[in-house]
Design goal:
With 89 residues, the chain is mainly β. The chain has one domain (18-84). The chain has strands at residues 4-6, 9-11, 29-34, 40-44, 50-53, 59-63, 71-75, 80-84. A hairpin with a 4-residue loop joins strand 7 and strand 8.
Length: 89
């Protein structure tokens, strides 16, 4: 496996880390984030847009199913996520 980063911030991919529910899969992952509890949030373009895992890769929950009528944007500076309709309302 390839190691990325340098210094004290080096990382190696862990194959099959995410333990998805049976029949679920990722489709075109667009973003990954981590909260202060080390939960990992994976945004993808599949049936279950946002999936949440604990640090060991155990599936916790999903959300965003059927919510394509909204656009979500986040700002790391203010630690805020905002929801808007595609036309900006």
């Amino acid at each position: 496996m390839a190691t990325v980063g340098n210094g004290e911030y080096t990382y190696e991919p862990v194959e099959n880390w995410a333990k998805l529910p049976p029949g679920w899969s990722f489709k075109e992952i667009g973003s990954v984030g981590v909260d202060r509890s080390d939960n990992v949030y994976v945004f993808n373009r599949g049936e279950h847009p946002m999936m949440v895992f604990d640090r060991a890769g155990n599936f916790l929950r999903s959300f965003g199913e059927g919510s394509s009528q909204y656009v979500f944007r986040s700002c790391s500076g203010s630690n805020a996520t905002r929801r808007a309709k595609p036309r900006g309302q």
